[in-house]
Amino acid sequence: MATFRATNNNPARTRDPYTMNRPKPPAEEAPIPDGPTERLNGRATGRRNWAVYLAVVVALFALNVAGVALFVGWRASHLARAALEPPAAAHPVAPAQPEGFDVSYAREPLRVQVGCSAVLYLDLDEPRSNAAEKVSDLRYDSRCGDQLPSLTLGTGAAGGSQVKDSDTDAAGCEKAIRTSPVGPGASVPVRKGAVLCVLTAATPARMVLVEITDVGRTGTAGMRATSWKVAG
């Protein structure tokens, strides 16, 4: 019986004679981990924006400072000009003069100071305290103790009346003397705030408003008088 050997058509793989020095296949390299990343162009843009914003703020601040400086300079210049200008002359306002009366003196102070139970005369035409009896328009009688001093019309007065208001004008005094005069021998107690109208008998005659401003101890009193010339 015949035996047939099949032929191996696959060539035998050649062996490497240097198996010890055979290089190993390169190992697959591990990937390098990525660190934190950022956009370089983004940071630069943010810094430019902040720089622009800061420049705008500085410019606005400088503009405000310049405005304040201009206002302060203008105000100082205005005040300096006002200080150099001479003040306007003040024109005193004269009290309203009733028809037929001209003011001869206004709010003239008079002081009376005498002893206990003493007499002093006042001339309201000048005016004068401690005048002669024959030209006096008021007689001041001091009292002792708790009694109040008193005023009576003098020989130089043509009439008089006690009024309530220290702002009474000449026409008001004329009416008061005509309608409620102080009679012969009558007196007016000297109290602070008392007001008396007196018409003098001088030529020209004067209408005088006398106000008691203070009353001190025995024999002391302060008065204030305003006089109008009476048209004759």
- Report the strand count: 10
Strand order of the largest sheet: 1-10-9-8-6
Q: Strand-and-helix sequence, N→C?
A: HEEEEEEHEEEE
Which stretches are low in confidence, meaning pLDDT under 50 for 5 or more residues running? 89-95
Beta percentage is: 25-35%
Which class do the helix and strand fractions yield? alpha+beta
Quaternary structure state of the chains depicted: single chain
Kindly give the count of domains: 2
List the total number of helices.
Answer: 2
For the largest beta-sheet, the strand count, sense and barrel status come to:
5 strands, antiparallel
From the spread of the alpha carbons, the general shape counts as elongated
Return Rg in Å: 59 Å
Fraction of residues in H or I helices: 10-25%
**Distance between the ends:** 197 Å
Mean pLDDT: 80
